[in-house]
Each structure stands twice: as structure tokens, then as C-alpha cells.
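Appendix B, example 12.
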Amino acid sequence: MKPVYALKDQGDMTRKIMLDMAYLAEHNKIRFYKYLYEDGLYFLYFGDKKDPGRIEKYFLTRDKIKKEDESYMFFELPSGFIIQ
């Protein structure tokens, strides 16, 4: 299984934060630690099935949070979503 990273652009560099791959593979949801969350996080995905070479950014914004507990935020992926 290939690791998936949440990315954050900062000036001329990009930081990477590895996602919880075991949870993602089993539940098809992103489980993200609250203390690591910040505005501007995104990951790359194949957006348009008609143009498979086109890669888009999927931003993890607060309105996409489906559930929260004291340690984690949970984000659901759209149907047919393929992470790059």
C-alpha cells in the first residue's frame, strides 16, 4: 500500500503529513489528529474521469468534517474518489 500524505504549501516549500493508512484502507475515511490539523491542508487526487491525467487538490476544510472526538477529526471521501 502506497502512503498518502496531506500536503501544506508554505511559501516555496510543501510540507507532508502522513495519513493513517490502516484506517483509510478499512473505512474509506480519513482519520486526522486534531493537533496536526491546520487550514490549507490538501491532498492530490484524480478528479476528472474523462481526463485521467488531470490531478486536482482536495482541501480538508472544516465543513468537510463528518465526525469528531476528543483526539481525531474524520473526513469522508467522495464516491469514486481515487487518491493520487
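Strands lie at 5-10, 13-18, 29-33, 42-46, 55-59, 65-68, 72-76, 82-83. The helical segments are 21-27.
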